[in-house]
Amino acid sequence: MAILDIIIHPDPRLKKPCDPVDTVTDDLRALAADMLQTMYDAPGIGLAAPQVGVLQRLIVLDCVKDEDAPARPLVMVNPRVTWASDEMSTYDEGCLSIPDQYGEVERPAEVEVTWHDLDMAEHSEHFTGLWATCVQHEIDHINGKLFIDYLKPLRRQMITRKMVKLKRERARA
């Protein structure tokens, strides 16, 4: 397994809707394993394929925060929200592609998500709390949407300017 480079906003790949996965290959399995390793290393609770430069509908997540609880890594191929609650919740979201920047995003408090695993078996699960926020955030990524797209334009522009500056600083290092 390898730690992958995470793309930093602004980058056109982060704004492109991703292609569906037709078949799971050994390369896709390796990518999923590398994405989980990268996510844990970052550290983060979710990562989408476009964040590592792959424009396919693949996300990974693990929202277990309790260090005494076992990890629950999920790999989702072609995930989609099939139901969302009318009740909303607000969470101060961040993103590995927008480091050290946060913003309050309102999303449905509960969602039902259907996806395929790496054997192309179909799964469906009801998510609440942080899991619901995270899975919606990652599905947004494969649809070409970032959490800052939910923020007011001035705040979004300010964050984007900070990321441009960060990318320049990293390029010089």
Helix count, DSSP H or I runs of 4 or more residues: 3
Q: Low-confidence stretches at least 5 residues in length (pLDDT < 50)? A: none
- Taking the alpha carbons of the first and last residues, their distance comes to 26 Å
Order of helices and strands: HEEEEEEEHH
| Total beta-strand segments | 7
Provide the CATH topology.
Peptide Deformylase
Q: Tell me what the CATH architecture is.
A: Alpha-Beta Complex
Write a structural description.
With 173 residues, the protein is of the alpha+beta class. The protein has a single domain, classed as Peptide Deformylase (Alpha-Beta Complex). 29% of the residues lie in helices and 29% in strands. It is built from three helices and seven strands. The strands form two sheets. A five-stranded antiparallel β-sheet has the order 1-2-3-6-7, with helices on both faces. The radius of gyration is 16 Å and the shape is globular. The two termini are 26 Å apart.
